[in-house]
Amino acid sequence: MTATSPAKTALRNIPQNQWHRATWADYVALRDDPSPERIRLAFNEGWLWVTMGAEGISHATVSDLFTSLLFLWAIQHPDQVFSSLGRCLLEQAEVRASAPDLVLYVGPDYPQWQPGEPRRIDLNQTRLPDLVGEISDTTLASDLDEKKHLYAALGIPEYWVVDVRGQRVFAFLLQENGEYLPCETSQALADLPIALLDETLQQLAQGTNTSAAAWLSQQMAALGQKQP
User: What mean pLDDT is predicted for residues 197-205?
Assistant: First the structure.
């Protein structure tokens, strides 16, 4: 008989893709379960989100495109330091955790893993990312509500929600009162127009994510030429 881990047994009884009451210990048990099943978790002050299974085609296509966007921006701005750590688990122990699709650090003080350390970002030991983002294929409502509140509570300066089906990007900047307000230009990516991201998604609808990235690279180069 094959033994089943307590975490896996509990997982079968947990509602998927919706927030429900749980403890930090419940979250840790799922996080540390050694089973090979694909699982993504988020936790915010007694509320847990569980998603199982691999990415769908649409999510993967847009996720790769927006990761490429960050690299393209870095190429256009070689005088700055950027570190992309998408899908890496962010934790504020006992309180909050999530693994955003996009995680960007701007500047030289970015997290670097050391042997013997957990393979996640401990926000009690390292600074916050400058930007996080969620690729929203089937999770738009939660990403604009519960996830948005989670990242605001963590103090993430900038948050993007990429609406795959609506071909648009909702971008927010954190205010002094701890709330997000919509923005038209990126702070982490030095005044990159958010409207250009919407146009890139529209380009994607006419081709591949690599062709959309090539188009975006041309637009970024043109932006750089306009800047003094």
Answer: 97
Percentage of the chain modeled with pLDDT above 90? 85
Q: Which of 109, 111, 167, 121 is nearest to 140 (CA)?
A: 167
Query: What would the DSSP string read from start to end of 104-152?
Result: EEESS------TTS-SSEETTTSPPPSEEEEEESS-HHHHTTHHHHHHH
Q: How far is 166 from 69, CA to CA, in rounded Å?
A: 19
| Rounded-to-integer distance, Cα 75 and Cα 79, Å | 9
Do strands 121-122 and 102-106 pair parallel, antiparallel, or not at all (unpaired)? unpaired
DSSP string, 20-68: EE--HHHHHHHHT------EEEEEESSEEEEEESPPPHHHHHHHHHHHH
104: closest CA among 50, 57, 179, 159? 159
What are the tokens at 90?
A: 């962010």
Encode pLDDT of 59-84 as tens digits: 999 999 999 999 999 999 999 999 99
pLDDT band at 2 (very low <50, low <70, confident <90, very high): very low
Helix locations, 161-193, DSSP H: none
Give the pair of three-digit tokens for residue 34: 């050694």
- Which tokens in the block code for residue 134? 């969620």
